[in-house]
Design brief:
The structure is a homodimer of 206-residue chains.
Chain A lengths: L13 H15 L6 H8 L3 H8 L2 H14 L1 H12 L3 H16 L9 H4 L9 H28 L8 H20 L4 H12 L11
Helix pairs in contact in A: 1-2, 1-4, 4-5, 5-6, 6-9, 6-10, 8-9, 9-10
The first copy, chain A, binds a DNA duplex (30 and 30 nucleotides) through helix 3.
DNA sequence: CTCCTTCTTGAGTGATCGCTCAAGAAACCG
DNA sequence: CGGTTTCTTGAGCGATCACTCAAGAAGGAG
C-alpha cells in the first residue's frame, strides 16, 4: 500500500525533472553535467534535488533507467522480444537505430553508449554501470542468435558470439556517427550494408 | 636554423613527458584527466608543464598529434597510402585495428574516437577538434572508395560515401568493444564479418 | 667572475565541484 | 487551533579545478 502523503508536498513534477536530467546526461555525459546544470534545467534548488533523488550517482542511475523505459532506449529490447525471426529483429534494430539516433528532437546517439566514456577514477562505478548494461545487451544478442542457429534460421557454421559482437559494434558505431552529424539517410545506408552480411541458411538437401 | 639554447635547460625529456600525457588522455579522456594527474605522471610541477606546453588544451592537441604519429594512431593513414587496392587497404585497417585496439601494452581502443566524448560546453572546442579529425578520416575513406569505383575495383552500383560511413562505424564500434573488454580474437571476427559485405565487382562481359 | 636568460620550485589564486545545514513554508492530523 | 512531517530556500561547507607568480637555480656569453 502507498502510504498517505504527509508533510509539505513536492512543488515540482518528479518525472518531468527526471526527464530534464535524462536529456542533459544524454547530451553531455555524467561528469560533464554538473549539479548546477541539472538544478537549472530541472527548475529546482540543489537541496530539493538531493531530497528527491539522493546523490548525483543515484540520479544518474534513475535517468538511465528512465531512458531504458523510453521508446528511444527500449527499441532494442522491444525488437528482440517482438520479432519472430532473428533476422527480422536485427533488421528492425538497425533500421530503428538509424531513425532514433539521428532524431533531432533529442540528443544524438545512445545514452548507454556515450554518457560515461570519460570519467575520473572516483566515478569508475558509473562507467562500469553502463559497460555492464552494454555487455548485457551483447549477451542478449548472442542468445537470440544462438536460438536462431538452433532453429535452423542461421547455418550450422554461424558463430553467434561473433555475430553478436559485430552487430553491437555496428550499432555503437552508428551512435558515434550520429553524434558526429550523420543523417538518418546515411545511418540507414550503414544499417543496410551491415545486414548484407547476414549468413545464408544451410542449403536444403536436394 | 635552431637557435642556441640559452638559459637553464629543461630537466625532463619533453617527448617522454608528452608520451605520458598521451597515455593518460587515451585512457581517461580530456576532462577526466586533471593537471595534477598529468604532472604526477610526467614527473614535473604545474609551472613546468605550462612553460613547456602552454595550457591544457595545447597539451592535449600536442598529445593527439603525437598519437597520430605513433604506430597505434597512424595505421589507418599508412594502410590507405601503402595498399595498392581499396579492398587491401580496408582489410588491413580492420585487421590491424583488431590487434591494436585490444593490445594491453597501452589503453584500449582509439584516442581520437573516445578521448573527448563527454565535455562541458567550455571545452566544446576540444570535442570539435577530435570530431573534425574523425570526419576528415571519413572523407579519406570516401575518396579512396570513390577512386576504387572509378578504377573498376568496385562495381558501378557501389556507394562510396555509404561504404565510408559503414567502415568508419565498424572501426568506431570495434574501439568501443575493445574498451568494453573484447579480445583480439573477437575483434578479428568483427573485422572479418564487416569485410564480408565488400561489394562484388561488375561481371566481366562474356 | 658577472650578467642574462630560462626553467624549477612552492605557495597560492579565484572559480567551480558535489553536497549539506538551519530556518521557514506548506501540507495533514487531531 | 497546535503539532508533526516533509519540502524549499539561501547560504555556505571542504575539496578540487586550471592556472599563475615570485624567488631561486642552472646553464651560456662576455
Amino acid at each position: 500500500m502507498r502510504p498517505m502523503a504527509r508533510g509539505r508536498p513536492r512543488t515540482f513534477d518528479r518525472d518531468t525533472a527526471l526527464n530534464a536530467a535524462v536529456h542533459l546526461f544524454w547530451e553531455r555525459g555524467y561528469e560533464a553535467t554538473s549539479i548546477g546544470d541539472l538544478t537549472g534545467a530541472m527548475g529546482i534548488r540543489p537541496a530539493s534535488l538531493y531530497a528527491a533523488f539522493g546523490d548525483k550517482k543515484a540520479l544518474f542511475r534513475e535517468a538511465v533507467e528512465a531512458y531504458g523505459r523510453s521508446p528511444e532506449g527500449a527499441f532494442i529490447s522491444n525488437a528482440l522480444t517482438e520479432e519472430p525471426t532473428a533476422r527480422g529483429a536485427f533488421a528492425r534494430i538497425l533500421r530503428e537505430a538509424a531513425a532514433i539516433y539521428s532524431d533531432r528532437s533529442h540528443p544524438a546517439g545512445c545514452l548507454t553508449i556515450s554518457a560515461a566514456t570519460n570519467v575520473t577514477p572516483q566515478d569508475a562505478e558509473v562507467e562500469k554501470y553502463l559497460r555492464d548494461l552494454r555487455n548485457t545487451n551483447l549477451k542478449r544478442f548472442e542468445a537470440r542468435l544462438q536460438r536462431a542457429k538452433s532453429d535452423g534460421e542461421l547455418p550450422s557454421t554461424a558463430n553467434p558470439k561473433a555475430l553478436a559482437h559485430y552487430f553491437a559494434a555496428v550499432i555503437q558505431g552508428m551512435s558515434q556517427q550520429a553524434r558526429d552529424g550523420a543523417t538518418q539517410e546515411t545511418l540507414t545506408q550503414i544499417a543496410a550494408q551491415a545486414l548484407n552480411t547476414w549468413p545464408l541458411p544451410d542449403q536444403a538437401p536436394t
